[in-house]
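Hey, I'm writing a tutorial for new members on how sequence and structure tokens pair up, and I'd like a real worked example in the thread rather than a made-up one. If someone can provide the structure for the chain below, I'll link this post from the tutorial.
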Amino acid sequence: MMLDDDDIEELKTRLALLRQEHRDLDAAIASLHEGTYVNELQITRLKKRKLQLKDTISKIETRLIPDLNA
């Protein structure tokens, strides 16, 4: 399925937002590790969300790569 210019721009915008959220989760996880009380459950949930974001980012990146066999 071919993407038009509007679709491509929408995916690029979503990709940028997801990448920012992924970086923010990195920072949140790091700060939780630095605290005096480490909430392992919260860290686990954040890491799970981070993996979900990574999967979504990969799917969007794959959609943005032109089909070389076309």
